[in-house]
Amino acid sequence: HNDRSILILIPMLFTELGLSEPILRAIAEHGYTSPTPIQAQSIPAVLQGGDLLAAAQTGTGKTAGFTLPILQRLSTSPHANHATKRPIRALILTPTRELAAQVHESVQTYGKFTSLKSAVIFGGVGINPQIAAIAKGLDILVATPGRLLDLMQQGNVSLKQIEILVLDEADRMLDMGFLRDIKKILAALPKERQNLLFSATFSTEIKALADGLLNKPALIEVARSNSTNDAIAQKIHPVDRTRKHPLLSHLIKSNDWHQVLVFTRTKHGANKLVTQLEKDGITAMAIHGNKSQTARTKALTDFKANKITTLVATDIAARGIDIDQLPHVVNYDLPNVPEDYVHRIGRTGRAGANGEAVSLVCVDEHVMLKDIEKLIKQTLPREVIAGFEPDPNAVAQPIQLRSNQPHQRNNGQRNKAQGQAKPQHNSAPKKSGQPNANAPNSKPRHAKPKAKPNGNFAPRSR
Question: How many angstroms separate the first and last alpha carbons of the chain?
Answer without folding.
Answer: 15
